[in-house]
Amino acid sequence: MPVTVRSETEADYEAIWQVNELAFGRTAEAKLVTRLREQGAVAISLVAEQDDTIVGHILFSPVQIENPRYRGTAVALGPLAVTPPRQKQGIGSALVKTGLHHCISQGFHTVVVLGHPTYYPRFGFQPAHQLGLHCEYNVPPEIFMALSLSPNPQTKISGLVRYHPAFQAT
């Protein structure tokens, strides 16, 4: 069964809520997606469709990197959700890869993620502190990762990453 990844539409909102609720077993991430939309803080939002059913979702939202010398634009990946029966079939990977291509085409320079430390490195993410980035939240360093999309990824970005205020309620 082929999977199609495409941009979300307003008609997808209810299905996106359900995908996030099923994937996480709670409504916090679904509520976060709604808050980010309502506050105009969605940079990229994609769905994975299989057999005319939405089975996955990924969202990227703007973040601030507190560093007066940093001139790039940055986004946070998350949430990433796939319905439990469709997990471990490459749907999440397809969403991440397509999402990162969208990030590049839209001119973003850096992507950060709070996520599983063995999942995201396959896409090039590394511990954010290796790029000089630190999270505003008190989280274990191995779950805060970053990916430089700039032409010179060896350049340290450095700074404190601040998520959109919609994340505060999560």
Describe what this molecule looks like in 3D:
This protein is an alpha+beta fold and 170 residues long. It is built from three helices and nine strands, in the order E-H-H-E-E-E-H-E-E-E-E-E. It has helices spanning 13-24, 28-38, 91-105, and strands at residues 4-7, 44-50, 53-66, 74-82, 110-114, 126-127, 133-135, 144-148, 159-162. Strands 1, 2, 3, 4, 5, 6, 7, 8 and 9 form a nine-stranded mixed beta sheet that branches. Strand 4, helix 3 (91-105) and strand 5 form a beta-alpha-beta unit. The longest helix is centred in the middle third of the chain and has 15 residues, at 91-105. It starts with a strand and ends in an 8-residue tail after the last strand. The mean pLDDT is 94.
Concise structural overview:
The protein is α+β, with helices and mostly antiparallel strands. It has three helices and nine strands, in the order βααβββαβββββ.
Q: Based on the structure, what is the oligomeric state of the protein chains?
A: single chain
Our Rg estimate from Cα atoms comes to: 15 Å
Compute the separation of the termini in Å: 34 Å
Structural class: alpha+beta
Fold blueprint:
Layout: E1 4-7, H1 13-24, H2 28-38, E2 44-50, E3 53-66, E4 74-82, H3 91-105, E5 110-114, E6 126-127, E7 133-135, E8 144-148, E9 159-162
Parallel strand pairs: 4-5, 7-9
Antiparallel strand pairs: 1-2, 2-3, 3-4, 3-9, 5-8, 6-8
Helix pairs in contact: 1-2
